[in-house]
Amino acid sequence: MDFGNTIKALIEEQDITQKELATALNVAPSTISSYVQNTREPDFVTLKLIAKYFDVSIDYLLDYRTQSTLTRK
Prior knowledge:
α2 packs across α3. The chain is 59% helix and 0% strand. By secondary structure, it is an all-alpha fold. The model has no long low-confidence stretch (mean pLDDT 92).
């Protein structure tokens, strides 16, 4: 799942509008729309704010998983 789909799903799960999220994050509604459409990605500060707002990890937002059996030298 890409970032846009993830944030869209979170918005729907929370039953909020993109405008409400934009207001909470202090960004323009068009910025949230760009995220949902995958035409733009948030900077690190905004990414952290989104994670905090939805109470999810940044790994979740980015659909990042590590292998459980990494070998280290």
